[in-house]
Write a structure and sequence with these properties.
With 244 residues, the chain is mostly helical. The protein contains 13 helices and no strands.
Length: 244
C-alpha cells in the first residue's frame, strides 16, 4: 500500500480513488491505474462538453476526448501533478487545457489513427446531451463545472439505485426517487396508494432515502479529493455551481 494510502488508513479515513492515484507517484501500480480509469469513466462527459463548447465539432471533440484520456492514462501525466492537486476536478480541467493547446497544431487525422481507445464513450449519447447546452452562453469552464456537478449527482443516484436493486427494492426506488429531485415531488398520499403503504411509512422511508443519498453523495465526492478533510468544501463548491 502506498504511503499516502497508508496514512489515510491510520487517520481513520479509507484511501480515495484520487489519493491512490496521487500516491502512486512515478510508479504505475495496477491499483492506481484502476482508480484513475474509474475516475475517467465517471467524469468523461464534462471533458467532452468543455471541448465542444471550445468550438470543436462532434467528431473532433470525440477524437480529442478519447485522445486526452489515452494521454492521461497511458502517459501517466498524473505523476507530474503537484502535491496541492488535491481535487481531481481541478487537475483534470488544468491538464485538459494544456492538452488542447498541445493538440491545436496537429492534424486530427493523426489522432484518429492512434491506438485503440482505452475508454468506451457513448459518443451518440454525448451529442444528444450536448444539444441542450448549445443554446446556453456558458464559457467552456463554466459548462465543465456544471456538468461535473451533475455527474457527481448522477453517480450518487446510480449508486443509490444499485443498492436498492441489490436489496430487492428496485420497484420502491423507482416510485420514490422523484422525492430526491427538487421541490416538484409527488404527494405522499399518492405514493402511499401506489405502494400500498401508509403516509407515515412513506414519510419515514423518504427520510431514510434522503439520508442515504447524502451519505452516498459524500462518498462519491470523497473519491475525487486527496484529503478527506476537503470533502465539505468540495460539496459547497458543487452546490454553488448548481445554484448559478
Amino acid at each position: 500500500m502506498s504511503a499516502l494510502a497508508s496514512e489515510s488508513c491510520r487517520s481513520g479515513f479509507p484511501p480515495t480513488h484520487w489519493s491512490v492515484v496521487l500516491a502512486a507517484g512515478e510508479s504505475a501500480s495496477p491499483e492506481s491505474q484502476d482508480a484513475l480509469e474509474k475516475l475517467c469513466r465517471t467524469y468523461w462527459y464534462p471533458v467532452y462538453a468543455f471541448v465542444r463548447r471550445s468550438g470543436r465539432g462532434p467528431a473532433e471533440a470525440q477524437d480529442l476526448t478519447q485522445g486526452f484520456f489515452g494521454h492521461l492514462i497511458r502517459k501517466r501525466v498524473v505523476k507530474k501533478a503537484k502535491a496541492e492537486a488535491g481535487r481531481f476536478r481541478s487537475f483534470l480541467l488544468g491538464t485538459l487545457k494544456n492538452y488542447l493547446l498541445q493538440q491545436a497544431e496537429r492534424d486530427s487525422a493523426l489522432r484518429r489513427g492512434g491506438k485503440e481507445p482505452l475508454l468506451s464513450l457513448d459518443a451518440d449519447g454525448a451529442e444528444q446531451r450536448f444539444a441542450a447546452d448549445m443554446a446556453t452562453t456558458e464559457t467552456p469552464e463554466t459548462l465543465f463545472e456544471r456538468k461535473w456537478a451533475l455527474a457527481v449527482l448522477g453517480e450518487t443516484m446510480k449508486e443509490l439505485e444499485r443498492e436498492h436493486r441489490q436489496d430487492g427494492k428496485g420497484a420502491l426506488f423507482e416510485v420514490l426517487y422523484p422525492c430526491l429531485e427538487g421541490e416538484d415531488r409527488p404527494p405522499y398520499a399518492d405514493l402511499a396508494g401506489r405502494l400500498e403503504m401508509t403516509e407515515g411509512a412513506i414519510r419515514v422511508t423518504v427520510f431514510r432515502l434522503r439520508q442515504r443519498y447524502r451519505q452516498l453523495l459524500r462518498a462519491v465526492v470523497a473519491q475525487t479529493v486527496a484529503d478527506p478533510l476537503d470533502v465539505d468544501e468540495e460539496l459547497r463548491h458543487l452546490m454553488r455551481v448548481l445554484e448559478r
